[in-house]
């Protein structure tokens, strides 16, 4: 995910459920008799059936394993991205989706190239640096200048320009660990806006302390932005361990007049426009093919890891959920559409293209959701459903509690790639995952398959499959999404 | 540390202590009256006094911080190594050691240079690789060949040569996590001897799964050896995550005839002979200056991390221990000698040179010890003392129990750099540390200061200071070491 700026919300919880405002689905089904007698409604019975089969299935793990092993890194527009698109089409076909198709998305292909940073004096040492996504290159010979350190973007903005002019800015803001990842939103402006703010103050370049919760020497990349009215300067992230080391050099020098001189050399380039694709697979609805359950993830990743957590896990989870529903309950009444979006990391490019290309049919989407926060277990369901019916699927909400998932707020914007849909009245949900360790690996070379626990991704798969089954097999209709 | 091949041993423990075979030191001291009345002997009283002051001191942490921040990586013979020698002399002088001197050590300077590995087909991906220390380079254009995977060195040795000839060998042996680090010895032959065994089977190159317990994309370097009678081939380590990925590619290809083709390019070079130094600091004994308490660590490190755990921690621990003893108890009766050895990582080069240069005075060493296993807490004291007096310092052993340190065996060879001394009759001890996480970081870029917990290194410092004080202020003499 790119910049999910999560806000933890209180669960509305059991009290509302117990208030008993459920209006059960009335669609009786032939298959209902086969299904667990504990089900309150036919739709719930389908959810419970797929729950049972999902808990025996490793499909989501197998899919992300296939993607990371057989494709690996897939930055938008790259050869890896093209292989990922081909992989996705083949995978959806192999799994027996009724329709598999792709929609073109024009993307800028940014190439990282060589990156190197070193303290020249007084304590010569290499630092581990990663160019931020979209950064321009340094001159071929690099940039060598005095480092000025700030503890926040605000301090930089407030600084006397004379202290910054001609120097390299070092933004050293620590990120706290948190289950909901709430501190990402507080720190990520360093990454997104650091270059613009440093350039306004006359800096030659900016380096940031990685936006991450690990203590390691992996630098965290991620997208940054320029402002056409401000000079473009190169931007990179150093690892948290290197940030600590560099900060300690300042402390060692406090009694000295000697400057800390840094040399940065990054040879990133914009490799121009390429065509990528949103890859889409559907199980066509048997009764209401025009009513669409939209579950999604993004296919692209950053280029240094294999994109296991971000967002191979999501690809595995939503693809597996759809397939497991089909296998467990047969052809769904409504259409289940899996979208694997292009180019999320560089600005939800595929998602915006999807909206432009499908504007007329957005009204058919019953709800949309994206899995894009790794593979930690889901603990909360947030919704953006029409208020008057929001609590109708009380039986589903109660069933999710058995999976450790509490009902949360009704004000979510959903995952990144569906976050623009409520503006069009499309309901969304967000299945909040335990992100305690997510930002240890996010956007680093260390985002690899071994970071996914099979039991955790299976819990995700099961929750998604239950909700998908319920919504695809019921008449519950949460449209339109309330305005934000 | 290079290759401590530990064997856990049963503690002889409390029973022996309680058997009451203690022969207490008889040296009465003026200062004794000042010291805690719980002390059984004057020597113990000194140990308890320094325990108290050490528990208020962060000196060992401050020393390793200074070394990692102000010097950083220091592979033998490099500019970093030269800076480390200057740093060590200045640090020992600043701390007020009576004598600070250095002894030259000739070392080969190996330079890592560029290293790159990628799967060419069927699943193009970059792999994170680190050249093994001492490896020759590949040709400039790299080596591109089929990969053949073996789960152990034994399997490689037993293989049909026709299956290996002309290929790249991949040794994929997993290392288990263990408090005592016992599995290092089982896996490290892959690193040390992999190139020789692969070359005997006709391979072009060898890559090993990193000898490490992490799941990350840091490759673990470390020394490897050639055999003059066998062709030299390049040798590298890939990270454990990359090893898993590569192994998974084999699994994905099981039903296919397609080979996995790897391209390796490593441009390491032997940069010739350089002079490094064992740096030595002493507090001269007031009564028996010729009786020497030798405590040590190694100053060199691998070149990718800042050598915080290996062996900045040891440098901090033994240097601080000596200084704290001097400050707490005044001039020691026996000489306390701190040796910061050169070039441990490439074969205990400084330690062997020390023996050659000081052969005639080795007999004066009361005991020798090295701290070289990171900063995990000490849980066991192993010794190599004359059997008939081994249990005399029962009061010290009991006091160490209060620090969580049990008495272990009497057959240790001590740390790497003192392991040759028992052959000369020099007693040694080994203070066994909790190494549960040591091999997550060992020989990687991720061996940095943030991996050291201040409270853990302080426990080490205190235990070393207690033993050093006791031995420097008593007449207890464990010479000669029993033969191995």
UniProtKB/TrEMBL annotation, chains A, B:
Record's GO cellular component terms: extracellular region; lysosome
InterPro entries named among the record's database cross-references: CPQ, Peptidase_M28
GO molecular function per UniProt: carboxypeptidase activity; metal ion binding; metallodipeptidase activity
Keywords of this entry: Carboxypeptidase, Endoplasmic reticulum, Glycoprotein, Golgi apparatus, Hydrolase, Lysosome, Metal-binding, Metalloprotease, Protease, Secreted, Signal, Zinc, Zymogen
Signal sequence, renumbered to the chain: 1-28
Chief localisation class: endoplasmic reticulum
Superkingdom of the organism of origin: Bacteria
Location in or out of the cell: Endoplasmic reticulum; Golgi apparatus; Lysosome; Secreted
All copies of domain Peptidase M28, residue ranges: 278-466
Biological process (GO), any one: proteolysis
Subunit (UniProt): Homodimer. The monomeric form is inactive while the homodimer is active.
Protein name (record): Carboxypeptidase Q
Upper lineage: Bacteria, Pseudomonadati, Pseudomonadota, Gammaproteobacteria, Alteromonadales
């Amino acid at each position: 995910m790119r910049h999910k700026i999560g806000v933890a919300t209180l669960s509305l919880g059991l009290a509302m459920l117990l208030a008993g405002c459920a209006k059960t689905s009335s669609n009786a089904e032939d298959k209902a008799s086969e299904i667990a007698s504990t089900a309150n409604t036919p739709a719930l019975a389908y959810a419970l059936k797929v729950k049972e089969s999902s808990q025996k299935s490793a499909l989501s793990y197998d899919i992300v394993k296939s993607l990371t092993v057989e494709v690996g890194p897939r930055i938008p527009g790259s050869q890896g991205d093209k292989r990922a698109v081909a992989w996705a089409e083949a995978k959806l076909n192999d799994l027996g989706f009724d329709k598999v198709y792709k929609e073109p998305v024009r993307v800028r292909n940014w190439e990282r190239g060589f990156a190197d940073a070193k303290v020249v004096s007084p304590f010569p040492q290499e630092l581990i640096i990663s160019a931020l996504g979209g950064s321009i290159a340094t001159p071929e010979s690099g940039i060598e200048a005095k480092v000025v350190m700030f503890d926040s973007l605000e301090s930089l903005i407030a600084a006397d320009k004379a202290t910054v002019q001609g120097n390299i800015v070092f933004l050293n803001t620590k990120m706290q660990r948190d289950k909901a990842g709430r501190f990402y939103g507080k720190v990520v402006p360093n990454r997104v806006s650091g270059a613009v703010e440093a350039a306004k103050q006359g800096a030659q370049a900016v380096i940031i302390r990685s936006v991450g919760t690990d203590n390691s020497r992996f630098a965290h990349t991620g997208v940054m932005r320029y402002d056409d009215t401000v000079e473009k300067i190169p931007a990179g992230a150093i690892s948290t361990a290197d940030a600590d080391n560099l900060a300690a050099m300042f402390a060692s020098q406090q009694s000295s007049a000697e400057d800390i001189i840094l040399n940065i050399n990054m040879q990133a380039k914009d490799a121009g426009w390429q065509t990528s694709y949103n890859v889409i697979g559907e199980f066509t609805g048997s009764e209401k093919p025009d009513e669409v359950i939209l579950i999604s993830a993004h296919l692209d990743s950053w280029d240094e890891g294999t994109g296991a957590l971000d967002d191979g896990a999501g690809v595995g989870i939503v693809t597996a959920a759809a397939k497991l529903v089909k296998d467990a309950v047969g052809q769904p009444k409504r259409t289940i559409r899996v979208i694997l979006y292009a180019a999320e990391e560089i600005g939800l490019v595929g998602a915006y293209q999807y909206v432009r290309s499908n504007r007329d049919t957005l009204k058919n989407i019953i709800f949309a959701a994206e899995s894009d926060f790794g593979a930690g277990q889901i603990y909360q369901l947030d919704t953006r459903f029409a208020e008057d019916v929001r609590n109708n699927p009380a039986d589903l909400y109660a069933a999710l509690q058995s999976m450790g998932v509490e009902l949360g707020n009704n004000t979510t914007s959903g995952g990144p790639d569906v976050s623009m849909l409520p503006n069009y009245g499309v309901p969304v949900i967000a299945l909040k995952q335990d992100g305690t360790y997510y930002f240890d690996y996010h956007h680093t070379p260390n985002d690899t398959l071994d970071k996914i626990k099979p039991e955790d991704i299976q819990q995700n798969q099961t929750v998604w499959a239950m909700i998908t089954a319920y919504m695809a097999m019921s008449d519950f209709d949460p449209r339109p999404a309330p305005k934000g």
